[in-house]
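Slide 14.
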Amino acid sequence: MKRAVFRAKVHLLMRQDLRAFQDMRRHEAMSETELSRLIDESSVRIALHAFDNSPFYRELYSEAGFSRADIAVADNFTRLPVVTKERLRAAGDTVLAQNIAPHRALLSQTGGSTGSPLRVRNDAAAPTAPMWWRIYRWWGIDPADDTAFVYRRLRQGKDAWLYAAQWWPSRHLLLDARAITEPSVEEFIEQWIRVKPRLLVAYVEGATAVAAHLERTGRKLSTTAVSVTAAMLQSGQRELLERAFGAPVFDTYRSAEIPWIAAECAAHDGLHVAADQRRIDIIDEDGNPVDAGVDGSIVATDFSNEVFPLVRYEMGDRSRTLPGRCACGRAFPRIAPVQGRIADAICTPSGKRVTGGLSGLFLSSPGAIRQMQIVQHADFSITLRYVAAAPDLADAAVMLAVRTLEDLLDGEVRVTPLAVDAIESTAGKARLVVSEVEG
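Slide 15: predicted structure.
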């Protein structure tokens, strides 16, 4: 009944979204040439829209020497200036397109885990719902299915009632990722047992906290799929979540600035970029494109946000493109799971800076630890904090990781392992690297 009611609502009230969803499904089967043409056309369209309608982009591109005619050439797209968080923060409302109705601008704010929060505007006319309908379908989930969330957004009073009415007869339950305690987790578990959701959508660290609680108390909660976001998914966390919830875990790449960028399919071989709606370029420190398989900084373009254009926006995260086509057959390109943020760097007293490979310290022993975090203190020394998953394997794996870190830092920095019960998180998110080194 729930699925029938949902489909009736879509056909009656969301016909534009339904058409967008049907188009998106067709895009999955495009040839490489067709998809490349679509990406080029969409890139030029949003860049021209930004130049024509946003004072910020008009000034940015003009100062960099780009005319409107230059921007209209697809081959010039990767030469356009990269937009950083700092630039956006300083630009404020000058980023807004001047010809768009104000009611389309939906305020969104980043969590500020690496500094001051950034306020942007999402586009109410963007086909966001069809994007998650499509990705849910990859996981065998229907949009009408009951769903559990571990998120930082919590509705109260009238808002909660309206939300429940909007989704009726589907049921959604929420655990506030900002306030995870044993009593709140127990209440969440009780709700889960009553509702039996087919999908869990959660911040990585929030889901891990629930799964660890289940493991400590000798219980499991069954579902069909687990979707995680907001932080790097470590291999030990994936194993824990799959044990606790008896379902495959799907990594996703999303943000407050650009929702639904990329997601795993059932092949679990990288994350498919939703390339008909988003463009991902990987660049080096000088802003140049890198080859496939080479780590770099993620630069994203949102084709569907005309209110607050995000064109070649540096996300602050690192990844690499994966060659070839996925075994699932979908046309969309893939990136490797996001391997930490640009800010996730450690350094030596002599000035060497290490930004890549830190998330892979335990790849050779994926079942040994559940989580890890690198803390570099003001004197450059490092504490490698870790949560052991298999005590009989953890000791050897940790010592190998310590040696690897010390070698990466040319023996200049002392690395001390520290076993902990949990990695501290903020609102369900945890940093891979915490640095106290100035500068």
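Speaker note: The longest strand covers residues 369-376.
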